[in-house]
């Protein structure tokens, strides 16, 4: 029954009947139902109930979300279903889900980023974690700390971009690496002393 309900609401996206609001995004106009968006997103609910200009003209310009990401967000908003998305899209979708307070979608994006950390996306994951989720940030920093070749990671565009945009966060990562190396060094020193005890 729930799957049928999800399908029915999902089909509304493709049906222009009774749509009463327009999302303008990068030159595209996407017609939607205010009642659906309001029921799912506290941000849209507030917008529609207020005296904001958007509520008066029944449209809003969305300038910080790409059309493809917006459509994936709307698919979830209508049906509760999440289309497949790439690692790159996960960060953009996380931003949009956070903006419109779609907590389930936000958590799906966070889990996707946690499970697919790589040399190519780890610094983006740290950036998004710093903005939206401490657990994601911790997991991504731990990935860097235990990577074993920070010199190699420092040559990636992800590190260069993060270092330029957020030196404080870059310093936090560097400090975590140094702390890890010191702990390993102390552990090795204690291990060596225990092994050599009795020989001197």
From TrEMBL:
It holds the Pfam family BTB. Residues 19-83 form the BTB domain. This is BTB domain-containing protein.
């Amino acid at each position: 029954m729930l799957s049928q309900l999800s399908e029915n609401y999902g089909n509304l996206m493709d049906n222009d009947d009774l749509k009463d609001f327009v999302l303008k995004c990068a030159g595209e106009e996407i017609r939607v139902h205010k009642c659906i968006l309001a029921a799912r997103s506290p941000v849209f609910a507030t917008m529609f109930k207020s005296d904001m200009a958007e509520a008066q003209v029944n449209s809003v310009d969305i300038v910080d979300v790409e059309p493809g990401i917006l459509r994936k967000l709307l698919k979830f908003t209508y049906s509760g279903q999440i289309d497949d998305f790439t690692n790159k899209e996960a960060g953009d979708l996380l931003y949009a889900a956070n903006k419109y307070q779609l907590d389930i979608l936000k958590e799906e994006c966070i889990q996707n980023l946690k499970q697919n950390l790589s040399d190519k996306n780890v610094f983006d994951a740290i950036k998004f974690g710093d903005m939206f989720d401490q657990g994601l940030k911790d997991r991504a920093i731990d990935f860097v700390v235990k990577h074993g070749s920070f010199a190699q990671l420092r040559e990636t565009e992800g590190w260069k971009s993060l270092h330029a945009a957020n030196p404080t966060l870059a310093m936090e990562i560097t400090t975590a690496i140094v702390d890890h190396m010191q702990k390993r060094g102390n552990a090795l020193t204690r291990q060596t002393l225990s092994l050599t005890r009795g020989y001197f």
